[in-house]
Every structure is written in structure tokens, then in C-alpha cells.
Amino acid sequence: NAGVTQTPKFQVLKTGQSMTLQCAQDMNHEYMSWYRQDPGMGLRLIHYSVGAGITDQGEVPNGYNVSRSTTEDFPLRLLSAAPSQTSVYFCASSFNGGGETQYFGPGTRLLVL
Amino acid sequence: EDQVTQSPEALRLQEGESSSLNCSYTVSGLRGLFWYRQDPGKGPEFLFTLYSAGEEKEKERLKATLTKKESFLHITAPKPEDSATYLCAVQTFQGAQKLVFGQGTRLTINP
Q1: Which of A104, B8, B57, B85 could make an S-S bridge to B43, C-beta 3.0–4.6 Å?
Q2: Which of B99, B100, B106 has the highest number of chain A CBs within 10 A, making it the mutation to test binding with A?
């Protein structure tokens, strides 16, 4: 099992550009989430999904879109990047949504100039 | 609003010097409190779950405890390989799919 994979590992964007952060898992988990990690603020939930076709907003959803067309994939879209979106992004998956079963990906470091 | 606060922000110890990390929380209806370890450039890795006050969990040199207001991660006789950032998170019954994280404690163990 590859677990949770994220691409790219690192990306530089200019303000106003769009991009998609990819997340995939091969554990057949129903629950998937996106977090951002900023210095001094811990991880904050952006969006989450409880199954294919079902998504919901987390704590900091503004500026981000998600969709879940398959169980395996949960991409995060930035439609018009802003410097405030400079952060490290982590994708996580879980078979039951519980904190004890969360598997995190290696992260994507995003710099918006 | 659910809140989690960790202290200290950073802790530097000598090898073998025991200490504790603190996680204070304010939530409505705690489903579980979780400790994770995060190494530089990697995602968090699950360590412990605590569900009710008085519960304790142990793994090697780490022991996690829980009261109604806070959790402690005790590190006994640490080694340099215990150096990492330790994250605390809570999950409530109302937000069952959501984790609320603290800021983390960056632990450095000097040989």
C-alpha cells in the first residue's frame, strides 16, 4: 500500500493563478480531509468528505474548492491564489472519520507570490 | 467554540531528562483526544487516543494522560530520536469528522 499520496511536493504560484493539489489513497477509506498548517496555528480543516459525491466545509474553506468523484481521489482547487494561501497542505484519510484512524499524506508546500 | 492550546511551544532537553508536554482543551462533548508525532517535512503520525478522564496510554518512553480539562504527554528518559513536533487534537460528538488541533510543541533532545 502506498497509503496517502500528495502531488506536487512543492509549488510556487503567482497571485491570481489557479492550481489543483492532488491527493489519493489506496486504503479504500471513505473519509478524506484537507488541512493547512501555518506556523503557530497548528493544522486547520479546510474541507472534508465522508464518501464519493459528498463534501462539506471545515474551519477555513474560503478560496478553496473540492470534489469527490471517486473513493480514491480528493483534489483541492485554488481558483485564484492569494499570498494568504501560502502554507503547507496535508491530506488525510480514515476508514471511520475518527482521529485514531487518520493517515496523513506527506504534504504539499505552497508559496504564493 | 472548541479550542486546544499546547504548551510550551518549544522544549529542549538533554538525553535522559524527563519532562511533560501540556494540552489544554475547551470543547462541548469530547469524543476523543489524540496525540500525533510530526517529523520535519512529513505528515502527522498517530500516537495515542484518550477517551475519558483518568485514562492513560503508554508506548515506549511516552505516556499520555487525560483529565477533564487537559492532557499531558510525559516523556521518560528521552533519546535524540524522540525529537519531533508533538500535536494534540480533539474530536467532538457534534463534529465527528473534524479534528481541532493545537499549535504543537517542538521537542528537541540533545545527546
Answers
A1: A104
A2: B99
